[in-house]
Design brief:
Layout lengths: L13 H29 L1 H8 L4 H29 L5 H10 L14 H10 L3 H29 L8 H13 L3 H15 L3 H12 L7 H28 L6 H17 L8 H12 L4 H34 L3
Helix pairs in contact: 1-13, 2-13, 3-4, 3-6, 3-10, 3-13, 4-13, 5-6, 5-13, 6-7, 6-9, 6-10, 6-11, 8-9, 10-11, 10-13, 11-12, 12-13
Length: 328
Amino acid sequence: MATTAPLPPAPAAEPRRWRDIALLAGLFALVLGGLASLALATGWAETKAQLMKLGLPQVAALLALSLANYLARGLRWHLFARRLGLATTLAQNLRHFLGGFAMSVTPGRVGELIRMRWLRRETGWALERTAPLALLDRAGDLAAMAVLLALAVALASSGIAFALPVAALALVAAVAATRPRLLAGLTTLAWRVTGFAPRPMARLRAAARSLAAFSSLPVAATALGLGLLGWAAEGVAFHLLLGWLGADIGLAKAMAIFTFSTLAGGLTGAPGGVGGAEAAMVALLAIEGIPLDVSVPATAIIRVTTLWFAIGVGLAVFPLAERRSLGR
């Protein structure tokens, strides 16, 4: 009886890992270079004076609020995983969720699908069975930020009413992305029109139909509540930061600017919204009369303590998640 030769081991992922690190470093240097140029143009001494207003307690508070965001959204991921039928623990799901942040600055955040690879190794579930988790996580963020932005704009006294169409668009996209019949119908239509790849299309259709498990009101309401709690924590952090820098514009307006800028950065398609989010934040603060010697350090600090802190947490958890997924 003929035997099948064992497959050769997969090539090491070291070159890809170094490429990702180089991408992270390049993006970070690009953003810092742009903000430093603005700081120099407006007076480095003034910018430095603003930065010196913050001590370790203030920085710790900003990081703690960001961590509250990650944990709330991690609990939402756990809720989705259990609803899908995965027998994973809370610790497992938090490890996958936080470790995925290491890939947040890949274009469109597609690198965060590394979580699906970890799930496949640990549970045996194929990608088409776990793919709804990634879609629901993204849709949950869009829905929470849309609601938060709309509430903040409604409560703000003036200034950022033009953000309402963005909130409406984000909410519509979030709802559409979680409708099983709509997505299954679009997949079927795409196959009938193109005739392309019937087997992958069938898998996509099956994945779309599995979204029905998440359509109940209690699940949707809990997911939305956790998303609101998480993103509101970072909005509060931005409000506190502006106050510490002597530019208190009110909680509602600060939260609206932070949320709108984050959404705007995501719409650019740039990795992590880098560049677009910073530009939108500085511009909106300027509309509110905040000078560049305050808006530039405020933008730099809030992005470091939100996006880049998340990447740092992801890089710290990533090796553990990789080892555990391999049974080590």
